[in-house]
Amino acid sequence: MSTSGLYVFLGPTLPRAEAARDLDAAYLPPVAQGDIIRLCARKPRAIGIVDGFFENIPSVWHKEILHAIDQGVAVFGASSMGALRAAELHPFGMIGVGAIFEAFRDGRLEDDDEVAVIHGPAELGYPSLSEAMVNIRRTLADAVADDVIPAATARQLEGIAKALPYRDRGYGRVLRLAADQGVPEEELADLKLWLPNGRFDQKRDDAREMLRVMRRWAAQGVAAPEARFHFERTVLWDRAVRDAASLADRERLG
Asked: Which is an annotated Pfam family here (predicted)?
């Protein structure tokens, strides 16, 4: 349990040791459905969402985030699942942080796969095994700004990356496919030489920004934003609460 009342759901976006240097908080695995309901039982002061499960594990439910806000908890989101949920829920009081959140909020990005990656297991620290599309977009934009490749080539590479399943995205594969499609060898060679120092991790940068925003918020001692809605209890909500409580009981017994 966090002595500061601050909790952050974090996975492949940022190593916990690095995150802890930005914010003293309790760091939890990527958020899944029911986790926010269970966490609210601890009376948190603030919750930060960076990473979250999806596909094989049900994603965090919008209504449980609204429940936390209704309970007076400040809920922050950035980078990955946090940016997606914050873009959807910022009108109701969730606090979005960073460039990725802003792009989804403003409609410049729409697809969930923009932030999705495949990663390794928890015991290895959730290492990323693919590259997020948002990182590729930012990196290619920087390559154009640094006169490494022309804008037209960046757009072609971006299209190649976007066409790949998120699990298969990586700079090496994009460069190989680009060569097969006739992108000039000298441009690809220049980009390959530039990438080790030039590539930019937008997800990591946004996550760290969120942690710093949370730290400043906690230091100021201000109240959480007021809920901008009336929370409706429904049959589905009551069932979700019961399911979350049942799982929590089984975890304690285990």
From this structure: TfuA
